[in-house]
Amino acid sequence: MYSKELVKGTLKTIILNLLEEQGKMYGYEITQKVRAISDGKLVLTEGALYPSLHALEADGLLTTETVNIGKRIRKYYTVTAKGGSLAQEKMNEFADFVNMMKLVLSPKFSTQI
Amino acid sequence: MYSKELVKGTLKTIILNLLEEQGKMYGYEITQKVRAISDGKLVLTEGALYPSLHALEADGLLTTETVNIGKRIRKYYTVTAKGGSLAQEKMNEFADFVNMMKLVLSPKFSTQI
DNA sequence: TTTGATACCTAAGTTTCTTATATATATTTG
DNA sequence: CAAATATATATAAGAAACTTAGGTATCAAA
Question: Which nucleotide lies nearest residue B75, CA to C1'?
Answer without folding.
Answer: D9
